[in-house]
Structures are given as structure tokens and as C-alpha cells.
Design brief:
413 residues; two-stranded antiparallel sheet; 16 helices; mainly alpha; 4% strand; single chain
Amino acid sequence: MLYYLFNYLNELNFPGAGVFQYISFRAGMAAFLSLLITITFGKNLINFLRRKQVGESIRDLGLEGQLQKKGTPTMGGLIIIAAILIPTLLFAKLDNVYVVLLIIATCWLGLIGFLDDYIKVFRKNKEGLAGRFKIVGQVGLGLIVGLTLYFNDFVVVREVDNAASLTTSEVQDFQQETGPTTNKVHYKDKKTTITTVPFVKNNELDYSKILPEALREYTWVLYVLVVILIITAVSNGANITDGIDGLAAGTSGIIGLALAILAYLSGRIDFSNYLNIMYIPNLAEVVIFCTAFVGACLGFLWYNAYPAQVFMGDTGSLTLGGVIAVLALAVRKELLIPVLCGIFLVENLSVIIQVSYFKYTKKKYGEGRRIFLMSPLHHHYQKKNIHEAKIVTRFWICGILLAILTLATLKLR
């Protein structure tokens, strides 16, 4: 909203109004405001949740310090959602298709998570929202995101040809989008389903090429199914990771920062040309959302770091995972998710492996056996008497290493 106000003031030659044309300035302001919202209003939310007796019910799993967390306010994801949406609405261009999709994803999954937490806390049903309804919600969002990214005319890749020059009007459009630059290039927008394949020299994969030529008119079906799978997997992965103080918020913040860098590079024609990666018009605007996302995660850690004063609940964890998935799809880096979201992946796999092995051994030997002391993986380390603060810090370090490796794929081919 403020972008349009200052754009109008800039047309009136109001001093300093032109700074809002720069994505870097608006991204910095979004991060600052997001941090300010979470830190300033987080305490008020915690006190409100305590008055309403919105406390976490804890099952006794035999973990050290676990029962002391009983009654800690949950549904803290509400402050994360507010800290993402308010700066985005203020500083981003609201006619940008990627920004609109991310706002929808935040509200959509936030509502699903809120319903789950509401049933657990106020209806005293420990199971929360039935799993099939969560899946239906995630599939619904996947359909919206997949169909929009496939059919929307503004979702394109711009092919660059350095041999030609931009016209005057093209230069003005380009500079308004990405800021001043000395590089002058010619481009052509292309509607395509290409995505990035990591560690490969010619690192682009077109989903349509996967199908036989006779079925390529149904590429949209394949693409939408991939989108649904990614959104469901990543949002559930973040949900599983949210098990000890600060783990999900810190890990998500690291992932969000890496995606902000990828979005900025892919959304600038000069950087994308230099790095030989696809240039995606209008994508740079997503950086404002990303920095608000990172600010919300870091600000939430003010109260969620050990010992946690509030838990995000499914309201926060489902939202964080789903938003990360949509961001990766928008940047066309979804095939990098196993690397970038490696923490979510191993947490998910630890549960799948544990359950599968237990069922297999129970059927074969009549007694279920386990590979891990407990799943998800962070509980395995708790069972080994490692303090949860140390577990979280080590997971963060692993997350940073994975983020660096993800960014390195821009050159490692």
C-alpha cells in the first residue's frame, strides 16, 4: 500500500519518495517492521493466550524437561502470520502474481493450522483436525498454486540475448522493476514449465519433456500434481520439525533467507545473465515477502528460543512449510528442496523409516523393533540425553551449511 502512495508522491517530485522504487529498501523495511511486530506485540499475544488458557497439552514421552512445558501458550503462529502479512501489504506491489499467491498460501495454511490448534485446545481433542481434512486443505492450495503458475500470463521466463539492445520504453520498464543498471539486453518472454536441476551443466528441466509427445497437452496435470506433492510434503515436514524450542522457526528463517537471495538473483536481469540462470520477470518483488518471512521467524525466536515462552503450534508450522514450498516453486528451484530443506527431509524420513521398520518387524518377528530411540530425529537425540538447546543449535548449523550448498549450486554444475 505504501508503495503506491510513495509512487504517487514521486510523480509529484516529493523529496525522497523515489527510494520506494528500490526493492532493496522496501525489503529492508519489511524485515525491520516484521521484527518490530513480533518482538513488540509478541508479549501481548502471550499474555492474551495465557488469560484464555490456551496452553499446550504435553504427552509424557519420557523426555527430560518435557513435562515442565505443560501449559505453555500455543497458537503463537498468529504473530508470525501477522508479522509476515502486515509488512508485505505495506511495502510490496499487491498486483504481483507471486506476492498474491504467497499471501493466499499464508492465510490458507494459517487457517488450517488454526483450526487444528483450536480443536486441540478448546475442544480438548488431542488429535486435532482430522488428517484427511489437512490433506484436503493442502491439496486445495496445491491446485490454486499449480494452476496459477501454469496458466497465468504473468508467470513467464524471459530469455536474454546480449547481442541486441533494449528500446527506451523497455529500459524504463526494466529499471522500474529491478533498479538502475548499465547492462542493456534484449529479451523475449516465454511461457514454459522449465525448472532448475541442481549440479547439472545445462541445468534446466522442462516438465513437458517428461511426457510422451502425444500427452504433452496434459503437462498441466503433471505440473499440478508435482506442486501438490511439494506443498504437502514441505508443510508436513515443517510441522514434524516443530518439536523442540526454536527448531522450526530458526530452520525456516535460514531457508527463507536463502530463498530471498535466489529470488533476488533470478528477478534481476543483470545478475541472472551473469550467473547464467533463468531470469523470471516480476519475481524480485517476492524478496519483500521473503525478508518479512525471515524477520517473523527471527522475531518469534525472541520468545520461542529455549526455554520457550510460547509455541507456534500448527498455526505457525504448517504455514511456514507451505510458504517455503510456494516460494521454491515461484523461484523454480523446487528440485533443490531436498537440499535446502534437508532438515525437514530427514525429520520426515526418520518418522517414515521408524514406523515402516516397526510394522515390518512386528509382522515378521511378532514384536516391533525400532531404528531410532524415538522419532522424529530430534527426539532421538533427546533420548541420548543431549540438551535440546544444543540439538537446536546443531540443527541450525546444519541448516546453514545446506543453505550455503544450495546457493553454491548457482555455480557448481
